[in-house]
Design goal:
The complex is a heterodimer of chains A (126) and B (166). Chain A is an all-alpha fold and 126 residues long. Chain A has one domain. Chain A contains three helices and no strands. In chain A, helix 2 packs antiparallel against helix 3. Chain A is elongated and about 65 Å long. Chain A starts with a helix and ends in a 30-residue tail after the last helix. By secondary structure, chain B is mainly alpha-helical. Chain B has two domains: 50 residues, no CATH class; 104 residues, Alpha-Beta Plaits, CATH 3.30.70. Chain B is built from six helices and three strands, in the order H-H-H-H-E-H-E-E-H. A three-stranded antiparallel beta sheet of chain B has the order 1-3-2. In chain B, a hairpin with a 5-residue loop joins strand 2 and strand 3. In chain B, helix 2 packs across helix 3, helix 4 packs antiparallel against helix 6 and helix 5 crosses helix 6. Chain B is globular. Classes of the chains: A mainly alpha (126), B mainly alpha (166). Chains A and B meet through helix 1, helix 2 and helix 3 of A and helix 2, helix 4, strand 1, helix 5 and strand 2 of B.
């Protein structure tokens, strides 16, 4: 076994892991019956699936040619932006009432999504 | 001298991160690229400093690194758990729940990091924050005991973030 062979097997394993997790994410998206639970499968499993695929790509570049660190950047940007899109989708779900209504926060506060009236202002005491 | 340093480098960490991002974007660790990355790292925070008026004053990089490693590990574990739920749990046995987390953190940056962490880890998505920023609304995919999830998040992530953003 030389390094090229080990690298080839490693790339294969990472590709398989990534493909399996991506497939599970797609299955979850189809299978669940509520808009909010549907959101979970792609956001969780997607990060891992894409992470493993990128790891395979990075291993391949290091084994068969010049190494590349672009994949690390893709992963970093993905991890920073994925929560934002999930947050927006769940806010849309709350507005469209396609899920159970969320409970109100205690002490007379309100969720900032549901501030509608003009005299409701977002107050920050941070 | 110190004032000049503060004026030139409003966010030393951001300068470093921008330089690293630039170098890995070019995929080329040469002296010229490093210098150009540092120049970008000085110019961009300087130009955007106006939009960060209340930035956290101190920020512990060592603890943040440990936190990132912990979260990465949790993401891997969470992925396997969620994949297992997706494949084996029928819809009727799923117990999704809304969970309200009272926040002890007060910096917007710290709350953002906490919300991002919650979205990336075990079957939970952060959905909203209350109008005064004291409560966080999250949705859990499968939570037989919502209070346990809340306590777990509070002591696993929030207590660590409190030490990072002092």
């Amino acid at each position: 076994m030389n390094w090229i062979e080990i690298g080839t097997y490693a790339v294969g394993v990472f590709l398989l892991i990534g493909a399996i997790f991506t497939l599970v994410g797609a299955i979850g998206l189809l299978r669940f019956n509520d808009a909010m639970t549907r959101l979970h499968a792609p956001t969780k499993v997607g990060t891992m699936g894409i992470g493993a695929l990128l790891l395979a790509s990075m291993t391949a570049t290091f084994v068969f040619g010049e190494g590349s660190f672009h994949e690390l950047l893709i992963m970093a940007f993905l991890f920073v932006t994925a929560p934002i899109s999930a947050n927006f989708i769940s806010k849309v779900n709350i507005h469209h009432k396609t899920c159970m209504a969320p409970p109100d926060p205690p002490e007379g506060e309100r969720w900032s999504t549901s501030l509608k009236e003009e005299n409701d202002q977002v107050t920050t005491d941070m | 001298m110190k004032r000049l340093f503060n004026w030139l480098l409003p966010h030393p960490v951001m300068t470093l991160i921008l330089a690293i991002v630039w170098i890995s974007l070019q995929n080329n660790l040469s002296f010229g690229m490093a210098v150009f990355g540092l120049i970008l790292g000085v110019i961009i925070p300087r130009l955007t400093a106006v939009w960060w008026p209340d930035r956290p004053k101190s920020f512990k990089i060592g603890k943040m690194t440990a936190y990132v490693v912990l979260v990465l590990w949790d993401i891997i574990v969470a992925n396997v758990e969620v994949a297992w739920i997706v494949l084996t749990r029928p819809n009727s046995k799923l117990r999704p729940a809304w969970i309200i987390i009272p926040l002890d953190l007060c910096q917007p940056e710290a709350i953002t990091v906490l919300a991002g962490t919650i979205t990336l880890t075990p079957g939970t998505v952060s959905s909203d924050v209350s109008n005064t920023g004291h409560y966080l609304l999250i949705h859990a995919l499968d939570a037989p005991d919502p209070d346990a999830v809340r306590d777990d998040i509070k002591q696993r992530y929030e207590s660590r973030l409190k030490e990072i953003f002092v």
